Amino acid sequence: MVSQERIAIDTHTHGQMHDLTDQVRRIVQSTGVRQGMVNVFNVGSTGAIGTIEFEPGLERDLPEMLDRLMPPSADYGHEQTWHDGNGHSHLQATTLGPSLTVPIDDGDLVLGTWQQIFHLECDIKPRKRTIVVTVYGEGQEAGIRS
Predict the structure, then answer these.
(1) Res 146: pLDDT
(2) What is the 3-state secondary structure (H, E, C) of 80-144?
(3) What does the alpha-carbon distance between residue 67 and residue 61 come to, in Å, rounded to a whole number?
(4) How distant, in Å, are the alpha carbons of 10, 75, 139, 143 from that of 53?
(5) pTM of the model as a whole
(6) Within 13 Å, how many C-alpha atoms sit on residue 32's CB side?
(7) Beta-strand (E) ranges in 17-105?
(8) Crossing angle, helix 87-96 and helix 56-69, to 10 degrees?
(9) Tens digits of residue pLDDT in 30-78
């Protein structure tokens, strides 16, 4: 079985994080898949998906660390071409990646106790983001086969 849904989020600032764990969990549980995988994908080149312990310290630390590694600069080739101020945003999002795959076991996400799924806004202006959630797998109780 394959099922796909979308999550819409509005972001307001560079470095803003959203915890997507509960929304992804609800989507997985609504499919009836007992064993499989879920892929969470950010549509766009300046947003990232990953896992982290979603707590205020790390919510601050991750964006600050990325800004130290890849700060805003007019020296990026992207800036020299487009002059839009977000060359570092593209690099940060690419470094973290646009997607994440999480195993599903017994109808639930296989995540550590302190591991949540997040979206990180790397762009410098507000965005309307679409997150595509694709569930693949089998549902024993419903007789579903992939």
Answers:
(1) 44
(2) HHHCCCCHHHHHHHHHHCCEEEEEEECCEECCCCCCEEEEEECCCCCEEEEEEEEEEEEECCCCE
(3) 10
(4) 22, 33, 29, 35
(5) 0.93
(6) 10
(7) 17-19, 35-42, 47-52, 99-105
(8) 120
(9) 999 999 999 999 999 999 999 999 999 999 999 999 999 999 998 999 9
Tokens 């990180």 found at: 120
Token readout for 101 is 């795959």
Q: How far is CA 127 from CA 6, 10, 104, 113, in A?
A: 16, 6, 30, 30
End-to-end CA distance of the chain: 4
Residue of 94, 120, 125 lying closest to 17 (CA atoms): 120
Per-residue pLDDT of 2-34, as tens digits, reads 999 999 999 999 999 999 999 999 999 999 999
pLDDT, average across residues 95-114: 98
CA angle (17, 129, 4) in 5-degree steps: 105
Strand order from edge to edge, sheet including 116-121: 17-19, 116-121, 47-52
Residue 9, classed as helix, strand or coil, is strand
